[in-house]
Design a protein that fits this description.
With 170 residues, the protein is an alpha/beta fold. It has helices at 2-10, 67-77, 93-101, 115-119, 149-163, and strands at residues 11-14, 23-38, 49-50, 59-61, 88-89, 106-110, 123-126, 128-129, 134-142. Strands 1, 2, 4, 5, 6, 7 and 9 form a seven-stranded mixed beta sheet that branches. The protein has a two-stranded parallel sheet with strand order 3-8.
Length: 170
Amino acid sequence: TCAWRWATRATSSVPPTPMDPDLVHDRLFSESGAVVARAEHPLTRRRQLATPDLHGARWILPRRRELERVAFDDLFLAQGLEPPAAAIETTSTVLMKSVVMHSDHLAYIPRELIYWEERAGQLVALTVAGMQWERRVGITRRRRGTLSPAARLVIEAVKTAARELPIPLA
């Protein structure tokens, strides 16, 4: 159990270059952020969208300190726009997807997390100029630390599962 807790806590966003010489980042895959809407949302009918087109929308977003929210806000700020306020803030992707499927709210989440809903025609990742974001996901561990046999097994299982994801790995 201890090895599992350690491994799940160590699986997260990883920087492209190590920021601490005592840490090793094993990249598993990359995720890309997407503005997500229900399939029948009025914005899905528009061929071209830009960041200002999203300003009047109602949003369900991660809390302000979450990586995806920081990236979302930064995309607006980089274009000289005030980031939209969230009508709902949550750390639950399941809640985000449910609210978006049953309302006109938009969400900004990793595209890979709506794989099955896109295939079922329930959710759509909108193409919005200026809203491109990507993060690396991986395992962070100590460079000089010794891993227990259980921790090594968990890390290998996580790496195997990442290779078998039904998403294109960048």
